[in-house]
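Below is a filled-in request sheet from our internal design queue. Each sheet records the structural input a requester submitted and the sequence that came back. We keep these sheets so that new team members can see what a complete request looks like end to end.

REQUESTER: design group, bay 2
PRIORITY: normal
MODE: inverse folding
CHAIN LENGTH: 198
BACKBONE (tokenized):
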């Protein structure tokens, strides 16, 4: 391995360590307490070294949120591929979205700015709309099968996304006084009612 390749690998390693340290700190202390100084201490480098790789904390958060959207997209695709009908796919996709949110709370909070400023404000995230797109595709196929008005697919799928995201947000921000069973049951009933209404 040449000197250039070795240096490049070292840079990639430090960059990955910065992101890993930031995410680990967020899991233990919360996103609000994250700072460049804490990240630098965690990787045993000085703060200027972190700034060599990322312009500021916001840039680190944006990168982590992109990874979150990528992980979510993979889980949604896995769920979709297990089923053949659009009705079953829709139910599986929503369920996978719910599970991802609560199995990866730190990611979800960062991705959607729950209890904090959303990272990468005004910046397009390639996979940001994958959940909405998949809901739309299923909704469109269900409407087509039923012979209903396909022009309603966009509005209907957006309404379902809003309901799912709203339930998750309420659950995450008020988890001390709202039972999880009520919200998951509400989610399942919402999806069932949604499919019937198309």
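RETURNED SEQUENCE:
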């Amino acid at each position: 391995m040449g000197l250039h390749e070795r240096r490049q690998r070292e840079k990639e390693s430090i960059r990955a360590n910065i992101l890993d340290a930031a995410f680990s700190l967020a899991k233990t202390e919360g996103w609000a307490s994250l700072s460049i100084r804490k990240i630098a201490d965690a990787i045993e480098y000085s703060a200027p070294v972190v700034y060599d790789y990322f312009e500021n904390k916001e840039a680190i958060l944006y990168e982590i949120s992109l990874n979150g959207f990528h992980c979510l997209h993979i889980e949604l695709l896995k769920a979709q591929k297990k089923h053949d009908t659009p009705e079953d796919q829709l139910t599986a996709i929503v369920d996978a979205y719910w599970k991802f949110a609560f199995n990866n709370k730190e990611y979800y909070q960062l991705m959607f700015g729950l209890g904090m400023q959303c990272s990468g404000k005004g910046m397009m995230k390639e996979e940001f709309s994958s959940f909405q797109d998949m809901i739309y595709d299923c909704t469109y196929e269900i409407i087509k099968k039923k012979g209903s008005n396909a022009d309603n697919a966009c509005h209907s799928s957006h309404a379902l996304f809003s309901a799912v995201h709203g339930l998750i947000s309420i659950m995450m921000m008020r988890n001390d006084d709202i039972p999880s069973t009520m919200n998951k049951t509400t989610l399942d009933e919402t999806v069932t009612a949604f499919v019937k209404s198309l």
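SHEET NOTES:
- The chain has a mean pLDDT of 89.
- Residues 3-29 form the longest helix (27 residues).
FILED BY: M.R.
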